[in-house]
Every structure is written in C-alpha cells, then in structure tokens.
Predict the 3D structure of the following.
Amino acid sequence: MPKVKLPGSNQSPSDIETMDMVLNEEGTAFVEAWKPIEEIRKVAIRRFNEAVDWFVAHDIATSIDPDEALGFLRGEISINDVQSLTGDTMEEMANDALVGLRKIKVAGKVSAFKEDIIAELLISDDPLGVIDRVLLDKYLSDLGIQSLCESCYTGSMPEIPQFHELQDIFANLPPDKALAAVRQASNVFNLEKATSEEPTTQLLGDSLVLFRHDLLNYLGIAHEETSLGKISHVVHGGYYTMDRTGTFDAPLKVSPTPIPSGSTSETFAQICDARAVEIWDRNKPIKVFWSGGIDSTTALVALLRNVPVGEIDRLSVYYSQGSIDEYPWFFNQYIDGKVNNVLIQDHAHENNGYYKAKSIFSTTICCCAAEQSNDAVIVTGETMDQVFGSVAFANKPDLITGNLETYLADFSNIREEIDTLNAACPITVNSIPIMLWWWNFALKWDEVKYRMFMSTIVDKTPDFMHFTDTDTFQLWSISNPDKKIKDTPESYKFTAKDYIFDYTSDADYRDTMRKGGSLGVRYGSALAIDNLGNIIRAGNTSINHDLLAQRYGTSLDRFKQ
C-alpha cells in the first residue's frame, strides 16, 4: 500500500528561524509551531540589532561636527571657517546643520532605548510578542519617530525649527508644542545669553493685558489647550487669548480692551480723516511705520490728506526695502523726495555668520519704533485686520463664499463653546467671513495691540498710536459687516482701498492688492504686559525661570486669580 503524504509535510514554516513544522495533535497534518523561546529570543535580538544598525547607517548617519553646526547656527563661526557642512548658500548650510543635529538627536534616542528593548526581549515568554517587538517601525513609533524619510527632518515645523519658521510657529502649532519648539530653538540658537538679573523696581499693576502661555507654567498653574484657545488658533492667535466678551473664564487676572457699545453712521473715510487730524493735533513729530500694505498705507494717506499747512516736516516715514517692494509706485510718488523718510535696514548676515543679527525675540522694526517713540507719535497699521476681518479668510475664496454650517462641522467637539461666543456678537453671525471677523475682533484685538511691545527691549509700553485702535473704528466695524469683503480675496478691505484710491487714483492697487503680512512681529522676549504698561521680562527670552525669580521674586503671584 503506497505511503500517504500528510498535508504540510512538504512545506516550510513562514519564518524558518523561529518556527518548525510539527505534526498536529490528531496526527493528520503538519503545522507551524514556535521553536523554544530561547532560540526565538536570540533571533529577535540579532534582527533587532541589524534593523537598528541599518537605520542608523542609512537614515540618521551624518558627517557634521555638532559643535561646528551649533557654532555656525549661532553666528559664532563664519561660513569661511566651516568644514563639515555642505551647501552652496548660507541657508543651505544652515539646513544641513539642522538636519544633522536632528539626526544626532534621533541617534541619541535610539541608543538610549536600545538596551531597554533588548532587556525586554530577554525576559519575554511570548514568542509573538518578542517578534512583534523587534519590528523597527513599531520601535521608532515608540520613540516618537513617525517616518524614515528625509522630510521628517526638514518638513514643516520640525523638532528643531529652522530660524525662518519661528515667525509663524504659533500659527502652525498649539501653544504648548509651540513653546516647546521655541525653547528648543533657544537652546540651538543660544538666544538666552543672560546669566543673572537684578531685582526689579517696577511698580506692577493688578492685571494683565497680554501674556505668553508659559507664564502659567512659571506660576505653577496647570493648563492645557482650551476650547477658547482652539477658536483663537483659527485666527492665528499666538499669545494667551484675551476674550473681550467676558464669555470665558481666564486663568489669571486680565483687563482686555472693552468692546464699545452702540453704532456709528460715520463713513470709513470720515473716521480716517478725523483720526489723522487727532494725530496732527498732538503737535509732536509723527513717525509712520509704513510696510506698503493696505493698513499702513491707509494711515499714511490719511495723514497726507490732512496735513496742516506748512507742517509736512513733522511727518517722517520709516520703511524697509520690503516696503518699497510691496508698493513701489506709492513710494516713488509720495515718499521718496516728498517727505522725510528713513530706511530701516533689514536683518542681514554679519561677518559671514548665519543670522548673527536675527532673533525671534526682537525685531528691527519693533525696536526701531520703540526707540523713536521718545520724542514722537509712532503710527502703525496694527488692529486694522481686526476691524476688517481675518487673515484666516483673506486669501481663501472657499472660506469667503463657503457654507457656515459645513465649515462648523469640523468643530463639532467645541460647537457649544463656539455658539456661546457667536451669541455674544452684536450682529448676527450668519456667514464664515462674519464669524471669523468676530473671532478676530473679540479674541485677538489685544494681542495685535500689544504684540509690538513684546518684541522690543524696553520695560514700559511706548507711545504708539495704532491708527484704527479707537472706539469709533470699532463701532464702524460692528455697524458695517458689508463693507469689509465682497466675494474674492482681492476685495478684502475694499473700503480701505477705495479710501487710498480717492487720494492716489491707483486703480491697480485698489483692484489687485491682497492682504499680506508685512510687519514681521515674532514671538516676543517679554513674558507679559500689565495694565500699567509694564513689560514683564527677564534675560533675553523670559524663558529661564531662575532669571524671572531673580528679577520678580514672588511679585508675579499678584496676577493669580
């Protein structure tokens, strides 16, 4: 009688190193079975080491000298003295340095966890668990490393931010993650240079008008992102949200700018002219910080339209090369050779060093404005976005004409809070542009009003006049929901552009100019501003808690609820 071949007798196990083919209990077929656990452990450890070694060699290997990379990023080593970085430009070499530093950091994580994983493998009695544990993707996920591709080191908002990303970091990350990135950047770029602080002589107020989220950390107040913070994040709020409606509780004592009640029948042009006359009537030198954008151009046009006879010399225009690039025709027609003007030199590389002059904690324009405020009225275009709407829809046609309920479907988890905030609006919230205007108007007014001061190096808020920071402009904004935008991005602030056109007759600017961020306000070195105008800061960054304690002791506790 011929022999019968049992099923599976001619097969190999799916993993020949960890399994055998054995006869089942019934003796009817061969099936897979695990080898002894000791053998499986040896295989797993070998595979794990091979996978890690391959990952280190192919994905995180770098030839940079970390000390040289840090020195270059901090502007301490010139481009002429760099040996281990590659690239044809300053920025390319800086990117190589940052990528290399990230890889070194990942390598450190791998090294730190490697022995722990092996220790786990040596004691596990679960064959499947042992094999699963050595899968490199799972291991990397445990380390917080989601991908082996190059983009995980160079993509948007990486673990160590690049310098140019820091300006917009709070528009792209929730507050806690943004602050962590700023702290990481502070270490990389050596932004905190102070080693000690003298006790302050400031007489502090009893409430705050603006503060960074990390003030809560310093005061020992536990916090996480709130519904209000999520709403504010939509309109690119960076500091702790100052709710002007009083709808939501604040973790500290705050005094937001009140929203005026009532309405106005005055036109935008009438309000602009009256504001200009008010500024001229202060009988001080007037220094306009002009970006070339709609906001500051509106302010400057108003002042030019209403200049008193024989007093044009009291007006000076401060601008950068970027301002000229933004609106060259206006510069040539109304500024160059026509009024006093001062070119503010943009940050530039010094001594062939990478961003040696730059800091996320102060900006040339803001510092210059503060310095010039001693003997003059400083005029800016700040708060005009809050009057007209929001950057959140300024360049997005789908939001301008989209359905409100469809848009709000993405916010179902905080819909109750949104409805509460919208109910506080003095006009009916029945479209996306009106809602985003309201969020910007109600939640971001004080951030925009005070953020320039957070980016200066003075201890008291200077004498600034943001052109639209008045009750009358706010009432116009509330009374004229149809005067802010039509149905295209180019129509955003059309009323302000019409006002400019009435003076310049420049139809191209009126019809095509879009909203653009020009000021370049970054996250400021100050920790907070109180209601007496004191700018609360310590060191270069206000990040070091020891420096804050040296300067303020326990006096900041007064702001606790």
About this structure: Residues 90-123 form the longest helix (34 residues). The chain has 26 helices and ten strands.
